[in-house]
Every structure is written in C-alpha cells, then in structure tokens.
Amino acid sequence: MKERAARYWPLFGLRIVTPLLEIRLADDDDVFALVDEIVEGVHDPSTMPFNVGWTDIPSPRLERESLQWFWRQRAQWGPDNWTFSGAVIVDGHAVGVQDLSADNFAILRTVRTGSWLGMRHQGRGIGKEMRAAILHLAFAGLGAVEANSGAWHDNARSLNVSDALGYEINGEDVGLRRGSAERQVRLRLTRDSWQYKRRDDIRLVGLEDCLELFGAA
Ligand SMILES: CC(C)(COP(=O)(O)OP(=O)(O)OC[C@H]1O[C@@H](n2cnc3c(N)ncnc32)[C@H](O)[C@@H]1OP(=O)(O)O)[C@@H](O)C(=O)NCCC(=O)NCCS
Questions:
Q1: Which residue's alpha carbon is at the smallest distance from atom 31 of ligand 1?
Q2: Ordered DSSP codes for the chain
Q3: What superfamily does domain 2-214 belong to in CATH?
Q4: For residue 215, how far is its CA from the centre of ligand 1 (angstroms)?
C-alpha cells in the first residue's frame, strides 16, 4: 500500500531520518495517532502556545477539525503553496507534528516552520531534533535561503529550540491570544547560520521524486 501511495504521490515516500527520529508526511494511520495525542493534551491548558488557538476547540469538533486540517494540507498541495505536515515518529509511534510551509518557493526560497509534540513526549530533546531534521530538508534538500518561525514571548521551550539552532530575533508583532494583546517574537535563520551548525547525521530518503512538488526542481 505504502509503495503504491508513493508511486502516485511521491511525498509519501519522503523520509527525514535522524539518530533519534523519523519525519514523514502524515498518512491516515499517523493522522489518527496524532489526534490521539491531541486528545491526551499538547500543552498546559492554562496557556496558549499557538498563534491560532485551535486546541481550545471543544471535543468532538477538535478531533474532527484536526483530521480535516491534515487532510486539507494534502488536498491543497501545489508547488506555489504547500504545507508539509510531517508526522514525527519515535520508536515507531507518531508523537507530534513538524510542519514546513512555503509560498512561491521556486522564487522566494523561504520556508516557515511550526510544531507540537504530545505533552508526554516533551522536554526530552525531541523538539530540537525534529526542527533540526526539517531544517535539513529545507536547506540541504530543497536549497532554501531562509527559514522563519515565531513564538509567543513566554514560550520558553519553543524559543530555546530556535535559539539552539541558530535563529536570530527578527522583530516582534502584537497578536491576539485568548482575547488579549500579547507580544510574539519573530525568528529568522539564514542559510549561512544553518550551515554553521549543519549536521552530518541526518538522511533524506526519496527526495528526488518530490522536488518538483516543492517547486524546487
Ligand atoms: C515547543 C516544543 C515542540 C519543543 O519540544 P520539546 O521536545 O519539548 O523541547 P526540547 O526538549 O527539544 O527542548 C528545547 C529547549 O528548551 C529547553 N527546555 C526544556 N524544557 C524547558 C522548560 N520547561 N522551560 C524552558 N526551556 C526548556 C531545553 O533545554 C532545550 O534548550 P537547550 O537546547 O538550550 O538545552 C514542545 O515543547 C511543544 O510541543 N510545546 C507545545 C506546543 C508548542 O509550544 N509549539 C510551538 C508553538 S510556537
């Protein structure tokens, strides 16, 4: 089944492999496992780490809209506008999501990242490893020149992941979080800064057939 899926939709054959984990486009088995993680909890309910407060949606809409989000990213894929919703696999289990998105990548060569892990998997270095993995896809695999990210001012873990990987602060925005105005930190990683910390133990498998889909042929 997986081989046939990859024949028709090469993104299903793409793997980013590190010593600790693997990232692959979330297939339906992964998607249901990820919704299990969402139900278990992705963050302390007293805070909101996300830009869009999707985890505040009540059940069962949360589960259903989460499924639709994954399906939508696959259905809407185009070389000019894509979101790779990567399932993060540790010891054979999907434990979280590492996204990579871009608009007009062929011209702009710029990507954005977003991520979450099930709460029970946090604080063990997986977040840093999965960001390093997706950046390897972006810079080494697709030839990106810049990666952008962002986090609320008080999301220490997310800010620490970015800092550890060489991002620099690129200004601030004021955003709406649960009805209040809050500061959001913009982060940018240039190709030079990535190169400085580049890892040599991350493998990209099955990328060649996907390059056109990413606008990176
Ligand atoms: C953000 C997230 C993906 C990070 O993943 P993680 O596996 O928990 O993070 P790691 O264990 O890799 O730790 C990353 C860094 O934060 C540090 N850290 C760990 N726990 C921390 C804590 N409670 N407070 C502050 N820093 C912490 C680590 O030491 C590490 O920094 P270092 O490399 O300088 O040592 C994960 O915590 C998560 O899913 N959080 C909820 C959703 C979220 O915030 N998503 C991002 C939205 S912008």
A1: 160
A2: -HHHHHHHSGGGG-EEE-SS-EEEE--HHHHHHHHHHHHH-SS-TT---SSS-GGGSPTTHHHHHHHHHHHHHHHT-BTTEEEEEEEEEETTEEEEEEEEEEESHHHH-EEEEEEEE-GGGTTSSHHHHHHHHHHHIIIIIT--SEEEEEEETT-HHHHHHHHHTT-EEEEEEEEEETTEEEEEEEEEEEHHHHHHH--SS-EEES-GGGTTTTT--
A3: Gcn5-related N-acetyltransferase (GNAT) (3.40.630.30)
A4: 31
pLDDT digits (tens, 9 = 90+) for 141-199: 999 999 999 999 999 999 999 999 999 999 999 999 999 999 999 999 999 999 999 99
Indicate which residue's Cα is closest to atom 9 of ligand 1: 127
Give the pLDDT confidence of 122-154 residue by residue, as tens digits.
Answer: 999 999 999 999 999 999 999 999 999 999 999
Domain borders along the chain are 2-214
Which residues line the pocket of ligand 1, CB cutoff 6 A?
42-43, 49-50, 115-117, 122-128, 151, 155-158, 160-161, 164
**Ligand 1, atom nearest to 131 Cα:** 3
Q: How far is the CA of 142 from the centre of ligand 1 (A)?
A: 26
Give, for ligand 1, the residue of 160, 184, 186 to mutate: max count of ligand atoms closer than 8 Å to Cβ: 160
